[in-house]
Design brief:
Elements lengths: L2 H19 L4 E17 L11 E14 L3 E24 L2 E27 L3 E28 L5 E15 L13 E4 L2 E14 L4 E11 L15 E16 L1
Parallel strand pairs: 6-7
Antiparallel strand pairs: 1-2, 1-10, 2-3, 3-4, 4-5, 5-6, 5-8, 8-9, 9-10
């Protein structure tokens, strides 16, 4: 682990110790829910469809460190994923014979992420609203790339005279920019080992006489390319993550 990464991970602990010594109100909790994830491929080739949304789940351990009655810092440890589905259909005709290719590409990478969020709280003691925003730093854990294709051959009258399918199933290998192509096996694809994101969210909570039950909704924007370039390779596109997450959770004051 690099010195920069280690320093980033220590930030929540440093903040926790500082505010605890200043008698700040600290709460710790658990939240979980779903993630709707897509990949922003830019630029798309002419006629190429944009990736569709794929569902996933998220689990996080938030720690709220209050700074007065309104503002707080909320570091988290979050397990989530990035991904998308891209479907396409291409048709070609030669001498009255038509070949239709249908592709279904699925991409998913699981990651452990460390959001460090600024939080503002409003409302009464019983019913609370919050806004939050901030960066997160993630580490890839595992991933899959699956490419399923079917080829249907038919005549001008629509009669099918042949059909075949192919399937590619690759496992993620986490490599830095400028890696050697020989580092990848035939059943692997390259993924950046780290990811940087921005969280923007809002939520509502109900005080249960101590524990706070809350609903949290977020838009998570990926900032870096998830697919690194091999040495000597020149990519003409980038893959960035876009996610919407909704979760429910509970916070317990310490």
């Amino acid at each position: 682990m690099t010195k920069r990464t280690s320093s980033f991970l220590l930030l929540p602990l440093i903040g926790l110790c500082f505010y605890q010594s200043s008698h700040a109100q600290i709460s710790i909790g658990l939240r979980g829910g779903f993630l709707l994830s897509s990949i922003d491929k830019s630029p798309l080739n002419e006629g190429e469809p944009a990736p569709k949304i794929v569902g996933g789940f998220q689990v996080a351990l938030p720690v709220e460190i209050a700074i007065g009655a309104i503002f707080a810092i909320q570091p988290e440890i979050m397990f989530g994923s990035h991904g998308g589905i891209q479907t396409d259909k291409n048709t070609g005709t030669i001498l009255g014979v038509t070949v239709t290719e249908t592709s279904n590409i699925r991409y998913r990478v699981s990651a452990l992420e460390i959001p460090l969020l600024a939080k503002a709280k409003f409302g009464s003691e019983t019913l609370q609203f919050h806004l939050l925003a901030g960066p997160s730093f993630g580490f890839g854990l595992n991933g899959k790339y699956m490419d399923d294709r079917t080829f249907v051959t038919s005549l001008a009258n629509g009669a099918v005279i042949g059909e075949e399918s192919t399937k590619v199933d690759l496992a993620a290998k986490f490599l830095k920019e400028g890696y050697q192509s020989t580092e990848l096996d035939s059943d692997e694809f390259a993924v950046s080992p780290t990811n940087f994101n921005l969280h923007f969210g809002a939520g509502i909570g109900v005080n249960l006489g101590g524990p706070l039950l809350f609903l949290d909704a977020r838009y998570i924007l990926g900032l870096n390319d998830l697919r690194p370039e091999a040495e000597g390779e020149t990519k003409d596109y980038v893959y960035k993550s876009k996610r919407i997450g909704v979760s429910v959770g509970v916070m317990f004051p310490l």
